[in-house]
Amino acid sequence: SNFFSKFKYRHSNNQEPPNKNKEIHCSNILKEHQGIVNGRGGGKPNMAQGSGEAKNINVFIEKLSLTIEKL
Q1: pLDDT (tens digit per residue) in 29-61
Q2: Are 35 and 60 a contacting pair, CB within 8 Å?
Q3: Angle between helix 57-70 and helix 26-33 axes, rounded to 10 deg
């Protein structure tokens, strides 16, 4: 399985994913690492999205993984 499969959430009835851990803020985590890919993004505490250059995507994913694992 890949990195993103751990975080897959299926929406039903257009409901947002539950924010089970109030200490985690997805948007802040994304913004902390988006400079690695010269990216932009943001969102809410329980959901974030962004875009950036693909050339450093592996470094971005690794750093993001390490940050999430520490939470």
Answers
A1: 999 999 999 999 888 888 899 999 999 999 999
A2: no
A3: 140
